[in-house]
Amino acid sequence: MDHSVLDKVKGGLIVSCQALEHEPLHSSYIMGRMAYAAKLGGAVGIRANTVEDIREIKKTVDLPIIGIIKQQYGDCNVYITPTIKEVDALVECGVDIIAIDATKRERPDGKTLEESFKEIREKYPDQLFMADCSTYEEGIHAAEIGFDLIGTTMHGYTDYTQGATLPNFDLIGSLVRDCGKPVIAEGGIWCPEDLRKAIDTGALTAVVGTAITRPMDITKRYVEALQ
Question: Is the pLDDT at 27 greater than 90, yes or no?
Fold first, then answer.
């Protein structure tokens, strides 16, 4: 495990700079500027989607990057770096950490997470991999099969965790206590107080996306306060 990357992000804020095709800020150039702004603001890392965005971000930002590729295969619910094809592309563009959906849901290639990750790990033994999990059990399982970092990314975003109150500090704390791997807090961190509490709960670092990089959603929250 490359501990230098973990040392760089320890106790700090990772900003997720992503905009999907249907969103107003969808543009690799805009995500590059967003990441640069995050760096100037004191972020210790960036989470980014697609090779195009990552390459653009790397032009001005030298922080560690958690790379993902959101790819939909048919009606499969697993879309965050779902197959080894996406892993290959992320390795090629040189991200520090690759995040993969590590939920118990069926994968597009028909393999179990364990089968899929075994193949990935054998091909890339020195790459850091983050497990995007939705439950305690998934986090423990991901740690057992060799993921380097355990994230709470998918909590509230699977059909069996829908409606969960975010952020779930109990989940973060339980994984910190039991999984034996560094934990990355992600999901529903809306204010500086949430971030502080996530780190105090024992997370190595925390990822904040919507609250910083999605102005449409931020605006909605303010508008809702008036209704």
Answer: yes
